[in-house]
Structures are given as C-alpha cells and as structure tokens.
Prior knowledge:
- By secondary structure, this protein is mostly helical.
- The protein has one domain.
- Helix content is 62%, strand content 0%.
- It has three helices and no strands.
- It has helices at 7-23, 29-46, 55-77.
- α1 packs antiparallel against α2 (29-46).
Amino acid sequence: MDLVFEWWVWAVAALVLGILEILAPAFVLLGFAIGAGVIAVLLLIGGPALVGGSIAMALVIFASVSLIAWLVLRKVFALKTGQVKTFDTDINQG
Length: 94
C-alpha cells in the first residue's frame, strides 16, 4: 500500500509543519498543517475510499483544505485595515 494512504504519515506531516510554524510564525505552514491533519483524520476514519482512492484526489483535498484554512487564519489574525504594528519596547534592553 502506498504511504500516501497511511494516516500516520499525514499526522506526522501535520506535526512537523506545526512545529515549523512555531519556529517561523507566519500562519503559512499552519494552514498546511491543518490540511495534513484533516487528511489524516479522513484516512483514519474511512481509509483511502474516503479521500477518493487516488493520490491525486488526496492531494486536491489537502490543497483545498490548506487554502481554506490559510484564508480563515488570515481573516481571523490579520491586522485591521489601516492599523500598523508598532513596538514600544525592545526585548534586548534590561
């Protein structure tokens, strides 16, 4: 069986992407982590049949969920229009 249809491969990918998001916070990798997590859950619940039974369909679902997750994260966590992020203190100053 292809590793693409193993739920734990997608779960590990989601975990790695989530950890990378913590190291480089930009809400880009978090969308991919959410997409991989959704694919992992779908494969765990229903197996390859639930994701269409083909690698191409699994990747289309992954890409679609990742894009939707990224758009939602951008909408929720974005700065308000016209607002500028400023910092008053420096973490290096004691």
